[in-house]
Amino acid sequence: MAIAKWYRPWFVEVLLLTSLAGCFGGKGPAGVALVPVSGQVYVDGQPAAMVQVICHAVDGKISTIPPAVSDEMGRFRLSTVQQGDGVPAGHEYVLTFRWAEFDSISMSFRGEDKFQGRYENPSNSPIRFRAEKGRPVDLRIDLSIGE
């Protein structure tokens, strides 16, 4: 019984500290500081669910940042190592977007992009931001299906 009393508070403290670390940005690969990046996607003025948000480093030095997907309120959080931990600091990024049907069997997006490819090219995307250490990024993204 004495072990259980010692173990429980220690476990709770570790869990709490680990959870809080994600709120303020953590460390990515090779100890690089991460900056939390979140946002909300609106399409024609309404929050949009299931929009793929793809993050590209402008300088090309960061090769893989997994895409995020907006929730039912259009909210998303970018991740590098852990869910919602952000992107490496010290870089400029551009976001691209794709909105297609989600196939729950293959766990992938299929079919025609509702944006008709309008937001898929990083060189044409107007959504850019710079990730600075200690400065979380929160974006409002307004997109349109119409021309």
Mean pLDDT: 82
- The residue ranges in which pLDDT falls below 50 over 5 or more consecutive positions are 1-25
Note the beta-strand portion: 25-35%
How would you characterize the largest beta sheet? 4 strands, mixed
What CATH calls the topology is Immunoglobulin-like
Number of strands: 12
**Helicity, as a percent range:** 10-25%
The rough form would be described as globular
Provide an overview of this structure.
15% of the residues lie in helices and 33% in strands. With 147 residues, it is of the alpha+beta class. The chain has a single domain, classed as Immunoglobulins (Immunoglobulin-like). The strands form four sheets. Strands 2, 3, 6 and 12 form a four-stranded mixed β-sheet that branches. β2 and β3 form a beta hairpin. The longest helix has 22 residues. The chain is globular.
